[in-house]
C-alpha cells in the first residue's frame, strides 16, 4: 500500500439492518453556500454535507470575503454579501476533486468583474470544462482553459454579460446551472433548454431565495439583475449516498434497513425506479416536502434481483448511482444492459472502464461499450480492486462484499470523504464487515 493511502478491507457476507441517516445532499449543500453567500441577509443551513467537495465551495466563498460560521454538526450560518459583495481572493481557489464547485463557480463568477483562478486535483484537472466555458463565452465571459479544455480556469473581468438562449448538447445539471448562475449577472433573459430533465436544485433554490425562474417543459429562463433574499435551508440526506445502502440491503439476504430523511427530488430518484425494475423491495414512507424539496424515509429489504435493459430516459436521473447499480447488476440473475450513458466516462474516473475492471477482478463478466456496459449476473469472488480515487467506485465495491465469497481490498479510498465522510463507520454499524487501513 502506498504512503498516505486509505484502503478498505472487507470480510465477505453479512446483512444490513437498523436505521440510519446518510450525510446531507452534496448538490444542495454546494448551492446553499453559493446562494446564501450572495443573498441579502443571514441564511441558516442545517444538514450541510461536511464532505471535502462542499467544504471546498465553502472555503472558496470565505476566501472571497463572505463571513461563514460553521460547519458544526451540519449547521452553517452565511452572512450574505449581496450580489456584488464578493472580494478578490488572495490566490487561486482550489476546488479539490469537486466538478460541481468548478463548473457552477465558473458561471457564478464570470460576471463579477474579478480576476480569478480556479484549480483542482489531478482528476478534476482532466475533466472537460469547455462545456461551460463555451456557452459562458457566448454570454461575453472571458475564461481561459488549458489547450485541452481543462482546468485551471482563469476568469478575466468583463464589463458585462448578456443573456443567451442555449440548447444544452449534453444533459448536464452542472452546465445548466453554470449558465443560469451567470444569467443572474447578465443583461436580459437567459434560457437553457435541456435534452432531458436533469437535477433541478438550482432552479428550486433560486426560487427559495426569492429569485423568479420560469420553467416551461425542458426550457428554464431567468432575467438578470435581480437579487437573492436570505432564507433557511434544511438539506435532506443525499439519495446518491443512500444508493449504496439501497443496493447493499437489496443484495444481502436478511437485510432490512431504514434510510431516514432522504431527498426524493424526482430528477434524482432514478436509482429507485431502476432497482424496482430489477425486483428490489423499496418502500417510500412519510413522503413530505421540506423547503421546496421532497424527502422520505426508505425501507429496503433483501429481494432477488433480475437483470434488465435500463431505460435510457432514466440515465440522467440516476447518473451518479451507476457504480452502485453495476454491483446490483452483478448480483442479479441474467444480463443487465446500459446504453446512452457515455457521460459516465468523464466523471471523477471513467466509471464504465473502472467498474468493468473491478467487476472482472471479482469474476463477473462485464463488457464495457462506448456508451454503457453489459453485465452478466454471477457469483462474486474476492480480490483487490482499485477505485482510481473515485469515491463512488470505492463505496460501490464495498457493498459488493456483502455477496462476495472471499475478502476484498479496495485501494485508494481517501476520496470517499468528498461526498460521504464517516461512510465506513456508518456502514459497519449497519452490518458491513469493513475496516479502514491508512498507509
Ligand atoms: C451535479 C450534477 C451531475 C452529477 C454531479 C453533481 C450537480 O453532473 O454527476 O455529481 O450538483 O449539479 P452533470 O450535471 O455534469 O451530469
Cα distance spanning the termini: 6 Å
Helix tally equals 12
Number of domain modules: 2
Chain-averaged pLDDT: 97
And the CATH topology of the largest domain? UDP-n-acetylglucosamine1-carboxyvinyl-transferase, Chain
**Extended strand count:** 25
Structural Rg: 21 Å
Assigned CATH architecture of the largest domain:
Alpha-beta prism
**Which small-molecule ligands are present, each listed once?**
shikimate-3-phosphate
Give me the secondary-structure category: alpha/beta
Description:
The chain is an alpha/beta fold. It has two domains: 6-24 and 237-438, Alpha-beta prism (UDP-n-acetylglucosamine1-carboxyvinyl-transferase, Chain), CATH 3.65.10.10; 26-234, Alpha-beta prism (UDP-n-acetylglucosamine1-carboxyvinyl-transferase, Chain). Helices cover 28% and strands 27% of the residues. It contains twelve helices and 25 strands. A hairpin with a 2-residue loop joins β21 (365-369) and β22. The structure holds shikimate-3-phosphate.
Blueprint of the fold:
Layout: E1 6-10, E2 17-20, H1 26-38, E3 40-46, H2 52-63, E4 67-72, E5 75-81, E6 93-94, H3 99-110, E7 116-119, H4 130-138, E8 142-144, E9 153-156, E10 161-162, E11 165-167, H5 173-183, E12 186-187, E13 189-193, H6 201-208, E14 214-216, E15 219-223, E16 233-234, H7 239-251, E17 256-263, H8 270-277, E18 281-290, E19 293-301, H9 322-331, E20 335-338, H10 351-361, E21 365-369, E22 372-376, E23 383-386, H11 391-400, E24 408-411, H12 423-430, E25 434-438
Helix pairs in contact: 1-2, 1-6, 3-5, 4-5, 7-9, 7-11, 9-10, 9-11
Bound molecules: shikimate-3-phosphate.
The site of shikimate-3-phosphate has 11 residues, from helix 5.
Amino acid at each position: 500500500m502506498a504512503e498516505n493511502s486509505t484502503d478498505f478491507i472487507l470480510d465477505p457476507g453479512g446483512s444490513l439492518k437498523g436505521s440510519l441517516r446518510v450525510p446531507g445532499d452534496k448538490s444542495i449543500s454546494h448551492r446553499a453556500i453559493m446562494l446564501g453567500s450572495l443573498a441579502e441577509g443571514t441564511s441558516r443551513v442545517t444538514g450541510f454535507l461536511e464532505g471535502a467537495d462542499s467544504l471546498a465551495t465553502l472555503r472558496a466563498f470565505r476566501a472571497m470575503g463572505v463571513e461563514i460560521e460553521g460547519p458544526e454538526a451540519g449547521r452553517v450560518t452565511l452572512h450574505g454579501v449581496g450580489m456584488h459583495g464578493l472580494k478578490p481572493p488572495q490566490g487561486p481557489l482550489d476546488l479539490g476533486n469537486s466538478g460541481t464547485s468548478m463548473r457552477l463557480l465558473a458561471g457564478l463568477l464570470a460576471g463579477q468583474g474579478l480576476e480569478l483562478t480556479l484549480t483542482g486535483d489531478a482528476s478534476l484537472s482532466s475533466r472537460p470544462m469547455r462545456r461551460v466555458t463555451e456557452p459562458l463565452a457566448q454570454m461575453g465571459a472571458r475564461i481561459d482553459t488549458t489547450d485541452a479544455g481543462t482546468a485551471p480556469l482563469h476568469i478575466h473581468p468583463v464589463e458585462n454579460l448578456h443573456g443567451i438562449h442555449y440548447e444544452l448538447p449534453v444533459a448536464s445539471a452542472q452546465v445548466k446551472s453554470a449558465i443560469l448562475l451567470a444569467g443572474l449577472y447578465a443583461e436580459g433573459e437567459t434560457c437553457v433548454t435541456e435534452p432531458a430533465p436533469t437535477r433541478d436544485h438550482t432552479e428550486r433554490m433560486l426560487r427559495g431565495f426569492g429569485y423568479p425562474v420560469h420553467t416551461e417543459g425542458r426550457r428554464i429562463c431567468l432575467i438578470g439583475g435581480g437579487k437573492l433574499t436570505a432564507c433557511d435551508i434544511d438539506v435532506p440526506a443525499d439519495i446518491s449516498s443512500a444508493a449504496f445502502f439501497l443496493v447493499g440491503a437489496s443484495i444481502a439476504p436478511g437485510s432490512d434497513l431504514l434510510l431516514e430523511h432522504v431527498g426524493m427530488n424526482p430528477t434524482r430518484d432514478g436509482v429507485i425506479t431502476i432497482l424496482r425494475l430489477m425486483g428490489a423491495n423499496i418502500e417510500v414512507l412519510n413522503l413530505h416536502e421540506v423547503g421546496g424539496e421532497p424527502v422520505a424515509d426508505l425501507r429496503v429489504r433483501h429481494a432477488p434481483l433480475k437483470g434488465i435493459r435500463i431505460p435510457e430516459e432514466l440515465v440522467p436521473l440516476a447518473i451518479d448511482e451507476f457504480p452502485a447499480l453495476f454491483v446490483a447488476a452483478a448480483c442479479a440473475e441474467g444480463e443487465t444492459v446500459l446504453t446512452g450513458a457515455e457521460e459516465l466516462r468523464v466523471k471523477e474516473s471513467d466509471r464504465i472502464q473502472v467498474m468493468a475492471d473491478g467487476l472482472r477482478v471479482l469474476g463477473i463478466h462485464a463488457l464495457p461499450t462506448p456508451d454503457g456496459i453489459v453485465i452478466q449476473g454471477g457469483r462474486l469472488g474476492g480480490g483487490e480492486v482499485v477505485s482510481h480515487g473515485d469515491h463512488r467506485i470505492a463505496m460501490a465495491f464495498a457493498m459488493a462484499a456483502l455477496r462476495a465469497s472471499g475478502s476484498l481490498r479496495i485501494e485508494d479510498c481517501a476520496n470517499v470523504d468528498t461526498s460521504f465522510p464517516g461512510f465506513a463507520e456508518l456502514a459497519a454499524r449497519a452490518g458491513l464487515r469493513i475496516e479502514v487501513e491508512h498507509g
